[in-house]
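Technical annex, item 7. During the second reporting period the consortium partners agreed on a shared format for inverse folding records so that results from different sites could be compared directly. Each record opens with the tokenized structure and is followed by the designed sequence. A conforming record, contributed by the partner at site C, is shown below for reference.
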């Protein structure tokens, strides 16, 4: 069965979707059981055999989901508490936490909550948060408005939020992030296919089943493209090397790296299969070139002016796919470009400078910031990096990627991603669906960081480069 996009929707839209599902004959209990089973599987991934899991369930359907989860959890010691009187449970909490559980499952309140909680509930939530026990939130962290992302006085601070069917739009708001934690979706819980339109969808592993497509057995270097990278300067040579290593993980046929004269030796010493050349400008690209990446590490004070001019010329005129990152973003001309693929990859700070607004304004409405950037710079594709990386352009559907973790906040992480995107987009077969390729790149980058965090918490960007691209779609 083809994977359907995971939509980002309002609570009202979620309720309409449920009504359509019940009208189709699907039983509510069957859906709740599948939701509970999804929670159980995620709880097992967050714990180990024999661990104790404390399950706090309210009186509504969210509590029912949590109760079904307690039935499906395997090889764990589950303690289920139906919370009808929050004062009573708050008084019992010290005893419940005397031997700290490995996990608390929060099923107190669902997405229908839209008014401030009474003080007894707030005290219970406060005590759960103070326990420092990791929390898995069922559909929504209790106390959070799923539409606005605002805490209703206070809310559970979850390690992971597993939301059902669709992502609720409030979860994409920065004010919600401290409560939501890591956002994951369980889309297949028995609801009918989503019958409405959506502006934003969430990227999930199943989107990339059998992607990238198998390579033809008769393929050769020319089949898989030739990426040209313009990167690196004195003091910033590592960015060029990491961009090249990212590109290598995408496995294009050839990679040529043009770097400044002062950075040539330290860059060339780190690379073998990449063809490293000193910048002489103006650039004459190889005839076999199929894509260009510009920007990583081009930050030295004595950067040749010809690199800036060449960036602007290529942006306006080149028929090749062109991606610009890092320092190169500050040189881009506004307005119309050549009729060819254009991609920019700003982090929030760079996006703010390009738009002439504050970082807070970018973060307050990331979709609007992305669409404005795209309009200003010729309807290019934008990968707006950061927590919940957003991908799209001025019109059409946006995609949000929730893989990755805070340890991606290391110098060189973005250079590696830029190279990986460039290496993918250099391949003619992957240019056919540039949107999917961009989404795949962001998902892989985050998935690699997640894999490292599970096995080696003090990982480095160089180690990220070693496993980038190894994740597989379900």
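Designed sequence (site C submission):
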């Amino acid at each position: 069965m083809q994977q359907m996009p995971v939509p980002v929707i309002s609570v009202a839209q979620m309720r309409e979707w449920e009504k359509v599902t019940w009208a189709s004959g699907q039983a509510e209990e069957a859906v709740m059981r599948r939701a509970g089973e999804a929670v159980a599987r995620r709880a097992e991934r967050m714990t180990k055999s024999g661990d104790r899991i404390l399950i706090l369930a309210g009186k509504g359907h969210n509590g029912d989901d949590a109760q079904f989860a307690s039935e499906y959890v395997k090889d764990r010691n589950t303690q289920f508490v139906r919370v009808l009187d929050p004062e009573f449970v708050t008084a019992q909490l010290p005893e419940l936490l005397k031997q700290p559980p490995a996990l608390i499952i929060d099923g107190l309140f669902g997405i229908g909550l839209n008014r401030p909680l009474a003080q007894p509930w707030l005290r219970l939530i406060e005590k759960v948060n103070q326990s420092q026990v990791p929390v898995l939130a069922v559909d929504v962290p209790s106390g959070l408005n799923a539409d606005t992302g605002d805490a209703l006085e206070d809310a559970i601070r979850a390690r992971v939020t597993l939301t059902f069917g669709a992502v609720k739009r409030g979860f994409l708001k920065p004010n919600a992030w401290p409560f939501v934690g890591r956002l994951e979706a369980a889309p297949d819980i028995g609801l009918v296919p989503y019958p409405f339109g959506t502006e934003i969808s969430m990227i999930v592993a199943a989107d990339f089943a059998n992607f990238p497509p198998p390579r033809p057995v008769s393929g050769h270097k020319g089949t898989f493209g030739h990426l040209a990278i313009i990167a690196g300067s004195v003091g910033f040579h590592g960015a060029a090397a990491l961009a090249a290593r990212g590109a290598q993980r995408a496995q294009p046929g050839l990679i040529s790296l043009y770097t400044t004269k002062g950075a040539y030796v330290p860059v060339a010493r780190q690379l073998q299969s990449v063809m490293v050349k000193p910048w002489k400008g103006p650039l004459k690209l190889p005839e076999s070139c199929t894509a260009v990446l510009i920007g990583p590490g081009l930050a030295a004070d004595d950067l040749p002016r010809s690199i800036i001019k060449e960036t602007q010329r290529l942006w306006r005129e080149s028929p090749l796919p062109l991606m610009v990152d890092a320092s190169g973003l500050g040189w881009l001309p506004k307005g119309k470009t050549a009729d060819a693929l254009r991609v920019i990859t700003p982090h929030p700070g760079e996006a703010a400078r390009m738009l002439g607004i504050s970082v807070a304004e970018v973060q307050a409405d990331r979709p609007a910031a992305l669409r404005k950037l795209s309009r200003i710079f010729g309807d290019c594709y934008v990968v707006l990096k950061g927590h919940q990386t957003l991908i799209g352009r001025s019109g059409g559907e946006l995609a949000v990627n929730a893989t990755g973790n805070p340890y991606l906040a290391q110098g060189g992480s973005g250079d590696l991603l830029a190279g990986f995107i460039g290496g993918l987009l250099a391949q003619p077969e992957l240019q056919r669906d540039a949107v999917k390729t961009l989404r795949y790149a962001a998902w892989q980058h985050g998935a690699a960081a997640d894999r490292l965090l599970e096995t080696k918490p003090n990982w480095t960007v160089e180690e990220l480069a070693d496993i980038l691209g190894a994740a597989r779609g379900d």
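The mean pLDDT is 95. The domain at 8-195 is CATH 3.40.50.10260 (Rossmann fold). All partners now use this format for quarterly exchanges.
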